[in-house]
Amino acid sequence: LLGLAADSLRLVTLPRARISRPFVVVGSIGSGRSTALLLIAAQLADRQVAVCCNDTSPLAACPGAVRLPRDDQDHAVAVLDSLGSSGSPPHLVCDDVDLLAEGPLSTRLDALARDDAGNDAALAIGASTDAVAAAFRGPLAHARRSRCGLLLGAVTRHDAEVLGVTLAGRAPSRIGDPPGRGWLVVAGNGQRLQLADPTGQQLENQLAGLELSA
């Protein structure tokens, strides 16, 4: 469950199988990007979830998730390897990928985004719109080519092209829209929506019997 469609107020769901690797959440500070990653991570219930974020990110509060240290990438990769030692690699959700220094974890993210690891675990990453638009290598470049993700905040027609969607004839998101307002893009097709609040009781009621599963 992601939220409500802006045009019909119907629930917008995203089956686990539709999350390409990587699924990218794009937006500026205050757009709801980190909360969107929490919304996704909290519903990946079929296996262990690892999250990578700073201390102030809402993603840090993901229930049951294993937190990866951003300042010790060797340790972070070791934790990922340990979680996958049972045969099922963990889902990985990483915020502010554009601010992650080069190192073993960023290299692992690049490999996972290319799917070199050959596993079916989800990979969801967050970054600023400008960073994704300017990326020519690494996980963000792969994310742009996947054409699958969320565009949040004030989205111009130029911003939408980051994920290959055309907003011609449709109103882009505006400055002043609430956090979590934006576009879901799947295979280059866009749908405007308002994301659910993953910390609210209302979402818990909506999630009864629903999860992001294959």
Provide an overview of this structure.
With 214 residues, the protein is an alpha/beta fold. 26% of the residues lie in helices and 20% in strands. It is built from 7 helices and 10 strands. The protein has helices at residues 33-41, 73-83, 104-114, 129-134, 139-146, 157-160, 201-206, and strands at residues 3-5, 11-12, 23-26, 49-52, 66-68, 91-94, 123-127, 148-152, 181-186, 189-195. The chain has a 10-stranded mixed beta sheet, with helices on both faces. Helix 2 crosses helix 3 (104-114) and helix 3 (104-114) runs parallel beside helix 5. The radius of gyration is 16 Å and the shape is globular. The two termini are 13 Å apart.
Question: What's the topology here?
Answer:
Layout lengths: L2 E3 L5 E2 L10 E4 L6 H9 L7 E4 L13 E3 L4 H11 L7 E4 L9 H11 L8 E5 L1 H6 L4 H8 L1 E5 L4 H4 L20 E6 L2 E7 L5 H6 L8
Parallel strand pairs: 3-7, 3-8, 4-5, 4-6, 6-7
Antiparallel strand pairs: 1-2, 1-10, 8-9, 9-10
User: What is the rounded distance between the termini?
Assistant: 13 Å
SS element count, helices: 7
Flag low-confidence runs: 203-214
- Helix content percent band: 25-40%
> Main beta sheet, described?
10 strands, mixed
* Global geometry: globular
Kindly name the structural category. Answer: alpha/beta
Q: How large a portion of the residues is in β-strands, by DSSP E? A: 15-25%
Mean pLDDT figure: 82
Q: List SSEs in N-to-C order.
A: EEEHEEHEHEHHEHEEH
Q: Total strand count, please?
A: 10
Radius of gyration of CA atoms, rounded to a whole number: 16 Å
**Order of strands side by side in the largest beta sheet?**
2-1-10-9-8-3-7-6-4-5
